[in-house]
Design a protein that fits this description.
This protein is mainly alpha-helical. It folds into 2 domains: about 130 residues, no CATH class; about 110 residues, no CATH class. It has 11 helices and no strands. Helix 2 packs antiparallel against helix 7, helix 5 runs antiparallel to helix 6 and helix 7 packs across helix 8. The longest helix is centred in the C-terminal third of the chain and has 31 residues.
Length: about 250
């Protein structure tokens, strides 16, 4: 897979600070995609075809619903529902048709019928899981985040100034650390993959150690003897720790 360089958003994300620059970028592009799907793209034929075929995951359906453009979302959901129903009924009818073999008169027919029902049921289950998990916005976000992770690795490999910025950062959340490792394996030779880990792992360890100390300070604040002690940066250590562990901003 080829990735494009997109350095300006990456630099902006690092200047923004926080526990993970890729979380900053992901949060930004998610809002952008939700807005775009409820804007002019609602009526674009290519977008409608894609939404009809794939739909949205529960998380992004909720974000789209909360955005208050109910007519635009209803239009997309209606045409997606019609295409879904066509496929859904096809699977249902196949299972129902096979289930009629329970009235077969011979042992071989019964065994064959049971195997057919079992196979169709497994296929139906797998199809339902896929329908539940697939999402147009998730797909687009994944492609964009892969590009941003690649850009970080490109800057690390080519610009000395970026290495200083990386060293001064708090590294990445676990989700996006994993993403950088994945992209490094896809795009870098083995010796540079090792160099990347050699640079980023100490930053991660230092960051987690700092969070542990801040979280401990936050917990101790609930002891009445420490009521008057200032919390400082430990005040928001719990949501930052959750973000670091999960890649999810906590408001």
């Amino acid at each position: 897979m080829k990735y494009h360089i997109d350095t300006i958003p990456v630099w902006d994300a690092y200047h923004e600070g926080g526990e993970c620059p890729l979380c900053n970028l992901e949060n930004r592009i998610e809002k952008s995609y939700v807005e775009s799907f409820l804007g002019g793209s609602v009526m674009e034929p290519d977008t409608r075809i894609e939404v009809n075929q794939i739909g949205f995951c529960p998380h992004h359906f909720k974000l789209l619903y909360d955005a208050q453009n109910r007519l635009g979302l209803a239009l997309m959901t209606h045409t997606h529902l019609k295409e879904f129903m066509e496929k859904f009924e096809k699977h249902c009818n196949a299972v129902l048709k096979a289930s009629k073999t329970r009235n077969a008169s011979t042992l071989s027919s019964i065994i064959k019928g049971r195997k057919e029902i079992q196979q169709l049921t497994v296929e139906f289950e797998e199809w339902l899981i896929k329908q539940h998990e697939q999402c147009v916005i998730c797909n687009r976000m994944s492609n964009t985040m892969n590009r941003y992770a690649y850009t970080i690795l490109y800057l690390w490999d080519t610009e000395k100034e970026f290495k200083k910025t990386l060293e001064a950062s708090k590294g990445f959340c676990l989700k996006h650390l994993l993403l950088t490792i994945k992209i490094s394996r896809e795009t870098l030779p083995a010796h540079k993959q090792a160099l990347w880990l050699a640079d980023v792992i100490p930053i991660e360890i230092k960051s987690f150690q700092g969070l542990e100390q801040e979280l401990f300070q936050f917990i101790n604040k609930f002891d009445y003897r420490n009521q008057n002690k200032p919390l400082g940066s430990a005040k928001d250590s719990l949501p930052r720790t959750i973000q670091k562990l999960t890649g999810k901003f906590i408001d």
